[in-house]
Amino acid sequence: MKDLYTMKESNLKMKDQLREESPFPWIQYVTSCYQCQKCTSGCTSMKHLELKPHEVVKLVNMGLIDELLESETIWTCTECLKCWERCPQGAAPVNLILSLRNLAVKGKAKLPENLLKTVSSLIEIGLIQREQRVPLKNLETVDREKLNLPKLVYPSEEFKGILLSMLEEVF
Amino acid sequence: MKSLAVYWGCYILTSQYQYELSLRETMPKLGVKLIDVEEATCCGFLLESIDKFASTYLAIRNLSLAEKISKDLLTPCNGCYLSLSEALHRWRVEESTRSKIASLLRDENLFFKGELRVYHAVNFLHDSLGLRKISEAVVNPLNNLKLATHPGCHILRPSEIVSADDPENPRKLDELVEALGAETINYPGKLDCCGGPLLSLQPEKSYLISSRKINELERIGVDGLVVSCPICFKMFDSQDVIRRVAGGKASLPVVYYTQLLGLALGFKPDTLGLNLNQSPVEKLTSKISC
Lengths: 171, 290
Fold this sequence. Notes:
The complex is a heterodimer. Chain A is built from 8 helices and 2 strands; from the N terminus they run αααααααββα. By secondary structure, chain A is mainly alpha-helical. In chain A, helix 3 crosses helix 6. Chain B is an alpha/beta fold. Chain B has 2 domains: about 120 residues, Glutathione S-transferase Yfyf (Class Pi), Chain A, domain 2 (Up-down Bundle), CATH 1.20.1050; about 150 residues, Rossmann fold. In chain B, the strands form 2 sheets. In chain B, strands 2-1-3-4 form a 4-stranded parallel β-sheet, sandwiched between helices. In chain B, strands 6-5-7-8 form a 4-stranded parallel β-sheet, with helices on both faces. Chains A and B meet through helix 5, helix 6, helix 7, strand 1 and helix 8 of A and helix 1, helix 2, helix 3 and helix 8 of B.
């Protein structure tokens, strides 16, 4: 079987692998989807998607996974989790989308630049960004010290080592 | 005085200082002592897109630091509340996740029993502290205000893991606002997402999403929007960006619940960091005496 738009081949083995090895246990129910489109009807990102949530599920079930890994659709989900809450079959497209993101990262896909910035900050200080100076109404900028907030205590070097080696395996 | 551990997450500690200021000011007044979880890291939410295991590890590590301090943990952030609750759920049901993470924790001399309870600020204030205690502490009732609440997503869904409120008809944040004397409204887009998790992936689209709620509320006509999550707050409070990206005349006061609570408890606006909100909060504060 072939997708006639993209000429990509179906790979059902990859689908089984995705289902069995996913770190998101909930995606095992993906094959129970009967295309009721309840996920799509409440989707926050609907207006911005090339492929709608129920179509993502359908493509996975057809084994057209490469196509999804290259699609902007998997990077346009806001994780509002309405599809998880409302799916009558427990298939929850959001877990599938996050699984596909994890798979795309392993496959060396090009990641959004801001996401990479947050990861490098995580490795450096354990938080997704450094302490920011923020503007008051009069445009003067202030930080934690100026606001008399306690000084941040960052995690140990040991922690940074653990996280770094964990992420080195992924990238 | 009841004491519990507080886990702030990243956004509050590094930029949403008004949430931290207002929670630190108001809790002692309600008889609650907060003890910071030090050396905490990101809850793992953003790593979920990269590697789910690493994300669960971060959450459990934070929980294990909190467990050393107290058997109850409060987090003011919706995103953190879900990450921590989901990780705790998996720790309890998945043997393989538990043993892999336990061995990583040992490298830092950490140990996790998995017995603590995780609260979000909303269900802690509503269920544990109680509406009566809050309304009794009010010295400056907010009688003239008509407000909309934004409960956010991650304290409601998925209800098999988080249970801060009813997933399809959340009322707790509304009841907390009403306990301060203000009126709340029901509106069609109440359950809609702020678009925040898209901010690090596709910023323009994320603000197009947040603009819908602001513009809807401008049409309905309310005195302000009450929020209980730092990411949602940023998405709705940055109205100069909303105007630039989506057009419209967005000019709606956006406040944290704890800021509103602080005003009702008699604190001065600047003590609660209201001078850090970018939306026109003067329109709201001018309607009450503070």
